[in-house]
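Need residues for this backbone.
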């Protein structure tokens, strides 16, 4: 059976051999939820980049640009990081360059994997079905917050471990911890996360509806995959 493991922070990624594995990057609040939403609403592709200047430079090629730092939209970009921005007709058939505090960095750091896919609660079952088809070792990389552990990405890891329980070997401490956390939280994810640090941070910025949206399961049936520099 293939193995399932969880990396709780991009700062720990050097401890894992990514070659031969599929990495699922998750940043529930909100980068990977926004990416899934944008691609499901007609964005053609996304180039995840690490810094603001590089992201801005893509506007010269006619790309849309999105930038978030510390939960806020950075100045002089087309979008911040709300999934609702990507439901507009404006995004259809366009390419987006995107940089966020943690999510795009986690994607970049995963580049050595055989494949990098993007997961969120919004496409949970589709990601699980894709991984079941592939039958390769999987590492879930939680974007966390500035190198630290977070609850919401770990809950996603636990939810995915539940979906894959019959087809993946998952007896490692990180996956077991994620699994048990998800079991505790599953009946009321929003309530469980109410004291989570990033939920508090977003609430202080008056971003409530994004949190509710990002915690919904299986709204979309796409599985974004990195092809070269692009998420498609
Ligand atoms: O850190 C990130 O990548 C973002 O998702 C954070 S935020 O939800 O946009 O604040």
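Answer:
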């Amino acid at each position: 059976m293939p193995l399932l493991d969880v990396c709780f922070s991009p700062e720990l990624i050097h401890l894992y051999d990514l070659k031969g594995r599929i990495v699922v990057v998750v940043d529930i609040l909100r980068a990977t939820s926004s990416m899934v939403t944008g691609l499901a609403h007609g964005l053609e592709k996304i180039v995840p980049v690490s810094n603001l200047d590089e992201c801005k430079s893509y506007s010269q090629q006619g790309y849309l640009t999105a930038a978030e730092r510390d939960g806020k939209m950075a100045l002089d970009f087309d979008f911040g990081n709300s999934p609702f921005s990507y439901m507009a007709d404006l995004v259809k058939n366009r390419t987006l360059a995107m940089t966020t505090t943690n999510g795009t960095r986690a994607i970049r750091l995963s580049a050595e994997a055989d494949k990098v896919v993007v997961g969120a609660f919004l496409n949970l079952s589709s990601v699980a079905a894709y991984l079941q088809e592939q039958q390769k070792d999987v590492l879930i990389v939680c974007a966390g917050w500035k190198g630290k552990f977070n609850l919401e990405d770990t809950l996603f890891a636990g939810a995915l471990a539940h979906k894959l329980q019959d087809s993946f070997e998952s007896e490692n401490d990180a996956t077991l911890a994620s699994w048990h956390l998800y079991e505790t939280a599953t009946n009321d994810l929003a309530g469980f996360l109410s004291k989570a640090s990033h939920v508090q941070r977003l609430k202080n910025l008056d971003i409530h509806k994004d949190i509710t949206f990002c915690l919904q399961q299986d709204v979309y049936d796409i599985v974004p995959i990195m092809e070269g520099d692009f998420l498609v």
